[in-house]
Design a protein that fits this description.
The chain is of the alpha/beta class. The protein is built from eleven helices and 13 strands. Bound molecules: NADPH dihydro-nicotinamide-adenine-dinucleotide phosphate (NDP) and N-acetyl-L-glutamyl 5-phosphate (X2W). N-acetyl-L-glutamyl 5-phosphate is lined by residues 98-99, 148-149, 178, 182-183, 210, 233, 235. Its EC number is 1.2.1.38.
Length: 345
């Protein structure tokens, strides 16, 4: 059995990791941390887990974490910087759900996250945890940096066009909508029921920290050529889910050919579902599941392709993708413990 530790077990991604891992046949949860809930039983705080775990929260301790085979960091930015190296030195592998190791360029990270990079020494070995692109590197990694939720939806939606060289000098548009759980479990005015439940708004319009991450990965898909993209996130009155509406100009194409590009690119991917062209993937069709649902629309008169990309931010956008990476790192069946049918409605 793989011994698992979770740092940040009371947050939304931490408890989603728990929901997935209590059904995973090859893992045993050993440590789950919370500084504010030390000593509280996990199932007292999350009654949906009654009968599945008798663990209690403990404060983060590098020695206890180092006895695990793998440690997930489901924590705010900066926490994995402080602890990951010590945990790695104890022989455990690290899967970080935060943004601490996603950006390869330290000054870029410091600019967007507004703090000093706390672990530049181990950054070069971090592998970006998008299995559809980096599966082979993930299988050999000690340190995996899970992609952000928005970047997962945007990158899976645009990479097939970019890899085909169909995106020449142009400004791509990523118009993305997310639910309130994306902001985490901490109390914030913007997450209050009266603020978010009956409203719809854009935010981060002057620049969101996921933009450099999206640019880094689209550039890699383009073989090192800069890809220009504008990204606007929106907060929608829902709890979970992301719908990315992606616009590109690809004149002179046929929808059948574009569809074929996507179907072939993702033919062997267990968690990317290319719907028939013209479909409308809804966030509820992926709620609770690790699947990204994509659909293409093409306007022959303008040459505009619209790619719709739907994920659950807490599953394919974070905890599910993290477990997918763990399965790859430990040589397990990639979909082990992740074959959830979406929750309806
Ligand atoms: N929510 C989402 O949709 C997504 C989130 N992410 C990323 O995953 C990470 C976790 O997000 P989320 O679950 O939403 O966050 P939450 O705010 O819901 O939870 C944060 C967790 O981290 C713990 N924590 C906070 N500060 C520290 C610290 N200094 N040291 C140790 N533990 C700490 C908290 O417990 P306590 O304070 O009791 O120790 C809590 O359990 C973030 O980096 C986020 O950006 C990534 C993709 C999607
Ligand atoms: C609604 C809301 O606030 N969403 C978050 C989503 C990002 C997130 O969860 O952070 P990661 O970088 O770790 O993926 C935001 O825009 O910051």
């Amino acid at each position: 059995m793989i011994k698992v530790g979770i740092v940040g077990g009371t947050g939304y991604t931490g408890v989603e990791l728990l929901r997935i891992l209590v059904h995973h046949p090859e893992t045993e949860l050993k440590v789950i941390t919370s500084r504010s809930e030390e000593g509280v039983r996990v199932d007292d705080m999350y009654p949906n887990l009654r009968g599945y775990t008798d663990l209690a929260f403990t404060v983060p301790d590098a020695d206890a974490l180092g006895e695990c085979d793998v440690v997930f960091f489901a924590t705010p930015h900066g926490v994995a910087h402080a602890l990951a190296e010590e945990v790695l030195n104890s022989g455990a592998r690290v899967i970080d759900l935060s943004a601490d190791f996603r950006l390869k360029d330290v000054p870029t990270w410091e600019k967007w996250y507004g703090q000093e990079h706390g672990a530049p020494g181990i950054l070069p070995e971090a592998v970006y945890g998008l299995p559809e692109v980096y599966r082979s590197d993930i299988s050999k990694a000690r340190l995996v940096a899970c992609p952000g939720c928005y970047p997962t939806s945007v990158e899976l939606g645009l990479i097939p066009l970019i890899e085909q060289g169909l995106i020449e000098d142009q400004l791509l548009i990523a118009d993305c909508k997310t639910g309130v759980s994306g902001a985490g479990r901490g109390a914030k005015v913007g997450s209050l029921f009266a603020e978010a439940a009956d409203s719809f708004m854009a935010y981060g319009t002057s620049g969101h920290r996921h933009l450099p991450e999206i640019r880094q990965e689209l550039k890699a898909a383009a073989g090192g050529k800069d890809i220009n993209i504008t990204f606007t996130p929106h907060l929608a009155p829902m709890i979970r889910g992301i719908l990315a509406t992606l616009y590109a100009q690809v004149p002179g194409q046929k929808i059948e050919d574009l569809q074929k590009i996507y179907e072939e690119r993702y033919a062997n991917e267990p968690f990317v579902d290319v719907l028939p062209a013209g479909s409308q993937p809804a966030t509820r069709s992926v709620k609770g599941s690790n699947v990204c649902r994509l659909a293409l629309h093409y306007h022959e008169d303008t040459g505009q392709v619209i790619v719709l990309s739907a994920i659950d931010n807490l599953v394919k956008g974070s905890s599910g993708q993290a477990v997918q990476c763990m399965n790859i790192m430990f040589g397990l069946e990639e979909s082990m413990g992740l074959q959830h049918v979406a929750l309806m409605p």
